[in-house]
Design a protein that fits this description.
Oligomer: single chain
Largest sheet: 5 strands, mixed
Low-confidence stretches: 155-172
Number of strands: 5
Helix content: 40-55%
Distance between the termini: 28 Å
Radius of gyration: 15 Å
Strand content: 5-15%
Structural class: alpha+beta
Length: 172
């Protein structure tokens, strides 16, 4: 089966009913997305399928055939980090870090749909992502900060934080 992951075409050999999370983590060696509950309830495994956040622990790989899969590794890079990655560090969102890739993917989908989201829109979009460290107020602040950054030119001080953010996600 051929998949498009982070803009690259890849061949996978997994059976069609294998959860997409396991194909991405085990076969493609992209370890940023995490396994949390196995029931699609916690959001740790969130990736985008054609721009829509999905729970990959319950999505069979066959459902992604012919669609674009974006993982946390495809959200930003050291050269061009996503504004959310910088804002996450500015607002000290990461604590244990386990839920962060899913949180970031849900937040990125929200900003793509609502560039200047209200608190209510943020709460709705993020409600399926659990954070055992309870950083929800910081997550909301970070989303507002990233939304504001996308409306203006990048700042010099956010660029250095952005590189640190990308390095943080690669280590998790």
């Amino acid at each position: 089966m051929q998949l498009s992951v982070n803009g690259r075409l890849v061949e996978v050999a997994s059976p069609p009913d294998t959860p997409l999370l396991w194909v991405v983590r085990d076969e493609l060696k992209l370890k940023g997305s995490k396994y949390g509950c196995g029931m699609g309830l916690c959001g740790a495994c969130t990736m985008h399928l054609n721009g829509t956040p999905i729970r990959t622990c319950i999505t069979p790989v066959s459902a992604a055939e012919g669609m674009e899969i974006t993982t946390i590794e495809g959200l930003g890079s050291e050269e061009a980090p996503h504004p959310l990655q910088s804002a996450w560090l500015v607002h000290n969102v990461p604590q244990c870090g386990y839920c962060q890739s899913g949180q970031l993917m849900s937040a990125a989908a929200l900003l793509a749909q609502h560039p200047q989201p209200s608190d209510s829109q943020i709460d709705d979009a993020m409600s399926g992502n659990l954070c055992r460290c309870g950083t929800y107020p910081n997550i909301r602040k970070a989303i507002h900060t990233a939304a504001a950054q996308t409306q203006q030119a990048p700042k010099a001080d956010s660029a250095s934080a952005s590189v640190s953010a990308v390095q943080y996600w690669e280590q998790s």
